Amino acid sequence: xxxxxxxxxxxxxxxxxxxxxxxxxxxxxxxxxxxxxxxxxxxxxxxxxxxxxxxxxxxxxxxxxxxxxxxxxxxxxxxxxxxxxxxxxxxxxxxxxxxxxxxxxxxxxxxxxxxxxxxxxx
Length: 122
What we know:
By secondary structure, this protein is mainly alpha-helical. It has helices at residues 2-23, 25-28, 40-59, 64-77, 79-88, 94-120.
């Protein structure tokens, strides 16, 4: 039961993140690393779609193990965007700066959580 709740919570987090990338791309576009080819909006939408796909994989018991691993990989992949946000927001108000700075170390427990869900999968 606990494993299902953890998987459902992770799937929910990923789904909300995916939807926000698609509905409010203007928030995410500025944190897309400039080293990526093409327009930032492409990467914002692509990451949103990836988050939704991974959420679906985590939510489905038959694909949960692969979904958890994909979630961990996704959390690693977005780390450069979080670092960019922390650097770009270093002169903002303390509250916004704290949010940006917190996103970087938050990736570690998210990766751990995703791997935990993967291990508990079929």
